[in-house]
Amino acid sequence: MPHRLKPRYSFRPVTPDDLEMIAGWLAEPHVAEWWDDPDEEIASIREHIDSISVEPLIIELDGRPIGYLQSYDPHLEDDHPYQDQPFGTLGIDLSIGVPDLVGIGHGSAIVRQFVEELFAEGTPRVIIDPDPANLRAIRAYEKAGFKAFDTRTSVYGPALMMARDNEEGEFS
Prior knowledge:
By secondary structure, the chain is an alpha+beta fold. The protein is about 30% helix and about 30% strand.
């Protein structure tokens, strides 16, 4: 993706009206491979619409919904497996739902922009936990400045733990 045409993404809260669209994305083979059962995921997203621990968001490119992103605070969930991370750490998960936008640089650009926004708000560290077999995602996160620091297996399955620290924060 040429830098002169750098896209700008926007992130807006998920509403109940978005759930059908997200369900369609979860059915796409490139998404279904890495996410759990679509019905369970939609139920979980619906629950999180008014949650304080998870923020479900729609990723938009030029006003067009193209994917799903959620940020979460592992310290606000009982028994979250990532509570060993420094207080203030936020985790993120995302998927680009539109198949023709996958594999052309959007993933790393979306993550980079979202993380910069979190850092501007004072978040000290952001973590992401792709499946170790999801090489496309891992490459995208590395391009966005994330570095692997651990491999784990939790209730969420196998995870390559990756982090990016806020250079302005106390953990850098």
